[in-house]
Specification:
single chain, 510 residues, Rossmann fold, TIM Barrel, 7-stranded mixed β-sheet, 6-stranded parallel β-sheet, 17 strands
Length: 510
């Protein structure tokens, strides 16, 4: 019989880098601190609860090793946090999350488990049916965890129906409680991550983040300065955990989930990272950092006041970098900006609510690079209006822009996105396993478009990746900017090939 625990909750960050990234996971991919478990730990500590974090991804723990560590801690509640550093990362870690829950129940069937995150919020009832958990959360999760801890402390004396945002089994039926609210007092209730609960020596930056010094990717950290996103691009599932309130049609889909930490609170986080952990390489993990000019400029000013020598990257849009923002960003240490260019065809972009004029891409990229900021350009092949001609237009655009780095993605109907709903309604083929939603997995299966199959999209994407990073023009630019060692690093990176289950015949991709 297990003794009564004095620990309220263990937050678990699942992950399996080998399954998600194949050979890229061992050294090329970033190894990022789990932002959401870190934030949740702070939120719960502020309310007087005792918390521990197990970063199974960061410590490369197997499901059974994770379960055994939980058993040693013996908490009142285990929370498996299925969030990620980008929206798609939630679904792709579901196999690991599910395996951890199964291992936990094998060791201690009585252990109470709550699963939450973007994927879970998108498919709460399905998650409860498929996973070995006691509860799932249909929202952001912060208040749900706190209320559930109070319920478990009361040892059955409290009414579970008063826990907001919860799905659970009752007499063979799924019960859904009233939706929970989202946190709106970030500075007061969740002022940053609980860094002391994380294995800070384990994390490393993306390889491109440290071009010119790829042997100095550690230490590394990620921070949020905002939460949520004001946009509703149909290929993105970011809004899934932030839906608030209900209507006759279900959750309200168009809520503005975008909230701010104050610049002073952000700087308090950076002060800790720099002065206690020696961190220089930092990712601003906001879904859209470069948006509110006052917020961005104030944070830059505070960094400049301290004289920190930082290497930061953040997300932006080609229509959000205004006036002198790029100059200020560069001065403060933002050496990389990531832009979601997505497609080279206006028709393709308009279909997924990512509308902007093509000339704005050239203008913004040129402006940012003129200030000395490197660009990561994100491209997506296989959006609903894509055909071979439009995908080639996207590839041609990537080669023309010749940015310092490029990510090539295949369109996926991630649960929680408009594309997922559209795929279900239209009966489009979807991956049979959650691992198939990973861009780099063996069983990765993109969406078919209106004109071509998902297998064709995947083959085009893999060829595009190879073509870009073997381009003589690109390699020459890299050597001139970052040196011969970085060029050799990229050539080594390009030598990796991904095993794919879904392939098309040689020569079938135009």
């Amino acid at each position: 019989m297990r003794y009564r625990s004095c620990l309220d909750v263990v937050l678990i960050n699942p992950g399996n880098r080998t399954q998600i990234y194949q050979s890229l996971g061992s050294s090329l991919s970033a190894l990022e601190p789990p932002v959401w478990p870190g934030l949740m730990a702070t939120f719960l500590r502020k309310r007087g609860y005792t918390v521990s974090i197990i970063d199974a991804n960061g410590e490369t723990l197997s499901p059974m090793e994770t379960a055994q560590r939980v058993s040693d801690l013996n908490p009142q509640l285990v929370v498996v946090v299925v969030y990620g550093h980008n929206p798609s990362a939630s679904t792709q870690v579901m196999p690991s999350a599910g395996a951890i829950c199964t291992a936990l129940k094998d060791i201690h069937p009585e252990q109470k488990i709550l699963m939450l995150g973007g994927h879970v919020s998108a498919l709460p009832e399905r998650t409860l049916r498929e996973e070995h958990v006691d509860y799932v959360c249909g929202g952001e999760g912060l208040f749900t965890i706190a209320e559930l801890i109070e319920l478990l402390r009361a040892q059955g004396e409290a009414d579970i129906r008063k826990v907001h945002g919860l799905y659970y089994w009752d007499d063979g039926h799924i019960v859904k409680t009233e939706p929970g609210k989202n946190l709106d007092t970030l500075d007061e209730d969740m002022p940053g991550l609980a860094w002391d609960l994380l294995p800070m020596n384990n994390y490393r930056a993306h390889n491109w983040h440290c071009f010119g010094f790829v042997d100095q990717r550690e230490p590394y950290a990620s921070v949020y300065t905002t939460l949520g996103c004001p946009y509703h691009c149909t290929y993105c599932c970011i809004q899934a955990p932030f839906k608030v309130g209900e209507s006759a049609l279900g959750y309200v889909e168009n809520v503005n989930s975008y909230r701010f930490w104050s610049p002073e609170s952000v700087m308090a986080q950076i002060d800790v990272l720099v002065n206690q952990y020696g961190v220089r390489n930092i990712k601003f993990a906001d879904e859209m950092f470069v948006l509110n000019k006052r917020h961005v400029n104030t944070i830059c000013d505070l960094i400049l006041e301290r004289g920190y020598d930082l290497n930061i990257w953040a997300y932006a849009r080609v229509d959000t970098v205004k006036d002198d923002m790029a100059e200020k960003l560069k001065q403060a240490g933002f050496h990389w900006l990531c832009f979601g260019i997505e497609a080279g065809s206006g028709r393709v972009r308009d279909e997924v609510l990512k509308s902007y004029k093509q000339d704005l891409v050239y203008k913004t990229i040129e402006h940012v690079r003129a200030e000395g900021i490197n660009v990561i350009a994100n491209y997506i092949f296989g959006l609903p209006e894509d055909d071979h001609e439009t995908m080639q237009a996207t590839m041609d655009l990537s080669l023309e822009l010749n940015c310092e780095f490029a990510n090539f993605y295949s369109a996926m109907a991630y649960p929680g996105s408009g594309l997922y709903n559209q795929a279900i309604q239209q009966g489009w083929a979807l991956p049979s396993k959650w691992s198939g939603y990973s861009q780099h997995a063996v069983d990765s299966l993109p969406l078919p478009t209106k004109y071509i199959s998902g297998e064709e999209v995947l083959a085009f994407r893999d060829q595009a990746w190879q073509q870009y990073f073997e381009s003589p023009r690109y390699l020459y630019m890299i050597e001139q900017k970052f040196g011969i060692d970085t060029r050799k690093h990229i050539q080594e990176m390009a030598s990796y090939t991904l095993e794919r289950q879904y392939v098309v015949p040689v020569g079938a991709v135009k």
